[in-house]
Amino acid sequence: MHGTSLRALRRVADRLVSSGVRTWVAYPAIDDPPGPLIGCAAEAVVLPTDLIGVRSIVGVARFARVHHVKCLYLADRPTWHPVYALLRLFTPIERIVVHDHTSGRRSRPRGIKWWAKKIRRYLPGFSVDHVITVSDYVTKRQIQVDLMQPHRVTRIWNGIAPQAPRQASAASSGRWDKFQIHPDTDVILCYGRADQVKGVQYLLQAFDLLLDKLPEHRHPTLVYCGDGWYKSTLDKQHAQMRHSQRVRMPGYVRDVSNLSGFAVFCVFPSVWEEAFGLGALEPMARGVPVIASSVGGLPEVVADGESGLLVPPADVEALCLAMKNLLNDSQLRERLGRGARTRTREAFDLVRNLDEITAIVWPTGAISAHAR
Predict the structure, then answer these.
(1) Looking at residue 1, what is its pLDDT?
(2) 3-class SS at 99?
(3) How far apart are CA 222 and CA 368, in angstroms?
(4) Rg of the chain's alpha carbons, rounded to an integer?
(5) Residue 42: which of 26, 60, 62 has the closest Cα?
(6) Integer angstrom CA distances of residue 258 from 141, 282, 316
(7) 281 within 8 A of 257, measured Cβ to Cβ
(8) Burial code of 231-259, b = ≥16 C-beta within 10 A, e = fewer?
(9) pLDDT tens digits, residue range 278-295?
(10) Does residue 48 sit in helix, strand or coil?
């Protein structure tokens, strides 16, 4: 399951238990107690729920019959599947909900493919009862590409709990010591998995260009935290940068989002259609302005000119200019930071988010598919 879904589900489970509703979270295997479920009402169970193959289908059906499961809650799974009709026919399952966090663009069906998709949507029992999407971008894709009926799709933005406000540089002393950064240095932070689609390669280019335009005594330091298959390529690019000494790339850093409150601003230069952009929301909740690509669901998170700045994806010059403007204008940073914190409270309230999810899942128990 997507991490956001799991965090939401554990809170939903705590709400439902007071009404006598049990919630199970299914894992294909469990070596240790699942950390995200410790202390919550949801119960972990070993159960393959990919619904591919007889073992998974029979296992889910048997579990649903034994435990009288009424609702099947799945993350990032197909919204149409023949197995759904079988589960409804042979188990107590009455409601199937899919929570769609998937990123990327899909091609709209044309001609015969469009008609085939449209017809199968009206076959009774084969489609899910409801789709929860994390952005208007994903909602549009569900309706236009998957041809899901609009009344069965609800956009619920990811929510976030209130966070401590951004810390002034004096209060952040020591936060960057492990990266060998002087406490008075302005730090630009970027984090996320090391993948080509995250656009960090363009951020490194833009940062090199930025320092060419700034006097040396004004040079900030860029910190990128993330690991993945593309990290070695980024390391090579880092080594070839003109200002490589002003960049830190430590790889994976635990609880890196907490560091965002000590950055002057954060950058999320993704070049593909992010479903939402939770990474951008985390610093915003602390009053830290964000520069992000105007792609996918990111423009729904970052309001351009109000809570951050949006730039075209893969546009090195535009990214460089946005960073220069924020560095040179403290009043702009403060205004965008205040706007980011306000927007987070008003648009991405976690309690409202959970109320909406619970209203869709309620009043039944739930199995949730979780892939480790």
Answers:
(1) 43
(2) strand
(3) 39
(4) 23
(5) 26
(6) 32, 8, 27
(7) no
(8) beebeebbeebebeebbbbeeebeebbeb
(9) 999 999 999 999 999 999
(10) coil
